[in-house]
Design goal:
The complex is a heterodimer of chains A (about 300) and B (about 280). Chain A is an alpha/beta fold. Chain A has 2 domains: about 180 residues, Glutaconate Coenzyme A-transferase (3-Layer(aba) Sandwich), CATH 3.40.1080; about 45 residues, no CATH class. Chain A is built from 10 helices and 12 strands. Chain B has a single domain, classed as Glutaconate Coenzyme A-transferase (3-Layer(aba) Sandwich). In chain B, the strands form 3 sheets. In chain B, strands 4-3-2-1-5-10-11-12-13-14 form a 10-stranded mixed sheet, with helices on both faces. In chain B, strands 6-7 form a two-stranded antiparallel sheet. In chain B, strands 8-9 form a two-stranded antiparallel ribbon. The chains are: A alpha/beta (about 300), B alpha/beta (about 280).
Amino acid sequence: MPGPDKRCTEDEVVAELSSGMIIGIGGWGSRRKPMSLIRAILRSDLTDLTIVSYGGPDVGLLCRSGKARKVISGFVSLDSIPLEPHYQAARQNGTIQAAEWDEGMLLLGLQAAAWRVPFLPTRAGLGSDVMKNMADLRTVTSPYATVLPGQNDGGEFEELLAVPALELDAALVHQNAADVSGNSVWLGEDPFMDDLFVRAAQRSYVSTERILPTTELAGLGDIAHLKISRMDVTGVIEAPHGAHFTECLPDYSRDEAFQKRYAATAKSDEAWDEFRAEFLDIDEAGYQAKVKELQA
Amino acid sequence: MSDVSTPTPSSTAVTRADICAVAIAEAFRGDGERLCNPIGNLPLIGGRLAAATFEPHLALTDGFYTLMDPQSPDEVPPIALPEAERVAQRTVAHWNPYREMFGLLWQGKRHVMMGATQIDQYGNQNIAAIGDWVQPRRQLLGFRGAPGNTINHTTSYWVPNHSPRVFVPAVDVVCGIGYDRAHALGSVASRFHEVRRVVSNLAVFDFEALDAEGVPTMRLRSLHPGVTLEEVLEATGCDVVISDDLGESRGPTEQELAQINRLDPRSLRLNEVPEP
């Protein structure tokens, strides 16, 4: 039987969010970010958010706009521009709290939440300043002895980093296609961690390039690309070019010219205000029309 | 040592950047069948050079989501290809999205060469921030994968701008962990840790010396041709042991030089390491 119809708009999603929430954002760097949802948050009065992300311009925009209070990330980068300038400024000005984890730790935190366990153990992070700077991180002692080859001393109970579950109030991800209930298809070459984000969250929202009948989903790639199930999805937003200006392969590559323009807005308050007025203080249809004009 | 004092062909102009490429390739010697994962232009040239010459069984990454198995040395793809070319020239052998890369590196069959904004005598590396991490004077890349890489598998570093600002007595933020941090964790927790080489535009370093506590510490292994010991020591802000058999970093063989030129047809390596 077909699943329920969960279609909604970006603004309807934002109405279901509240200030102070922990929000996970899918994609990776400046790749397949749910930017139309980010833009809707920027237009809202939401504030005090904790953002969990393999960060790109999503994080930079939320920091610059004062929406983010805290950012938990494996990195924040625009890929072709290695340092996200607005995140960099927020860190240097001390306007946000940061938890900077090893990249792999973030995967484990999401996986722990998705599996409903309080932590997952790893060696990644031990001995580094991740442990020193993120003072809330704890270690756990293995209940099983590690016996090294050639040793007969009963072994050692290893201490490992216990990556805490990243329990999200909401997750936002962007997919190449979905049906009205949220069964989703990622294309390109990497699913990133989107399926973990939606499982780690109380409520999950998928924006997508196109909404298709369920019967057409499996034909878009092989079945391994049907990575997100409707059971993990609260709302579906049809958002063609919704990931702009980040990359969303194979539908479109990154808009490097626009990204450069965005990055340059970190230079001064005036540059930011101008960018904001032109591209962010308008609705999504207006934004997309402006972008089309620029690309013409 | 196989990587010093081999004659350089005199007929062809060999640049400092070529010397660096060979020194980087040498860092991967002996790795056999594991993932050679250099990051940055010269590391990529060096890593692919190793695969195209003396380490043919190395697995190579396309820089994104696949591992490639070129079917002959001349099919090892050049660096910095336009996207369509990059995709066309790779022989995909394995799907390796980011989550699989974490799986691979936690398993340990990987040797990464990363950059270092700062590095110290124990091989601690900083790419996260300059100053106090809580509110840094300059925010850099963050920790990225450095903590997990260094505690799980072999790591080397590439420094194109050797100076006392890079080689420091103590790094501001420990991202990739060095031998003192590994030592403090104990032999079980640190059993997969290895910082093998630091290759700079001036010299090659290893960690085949021990400090007073028996902890591996940075050792000057070879000087690039034309570089003096004084020059290197002046540019190095941390303690460094000088190898008893300090030699000259070797130049490329003719075959290697041909591969370097093929792998870097636009000579991007000269932007990174200009001729002195």
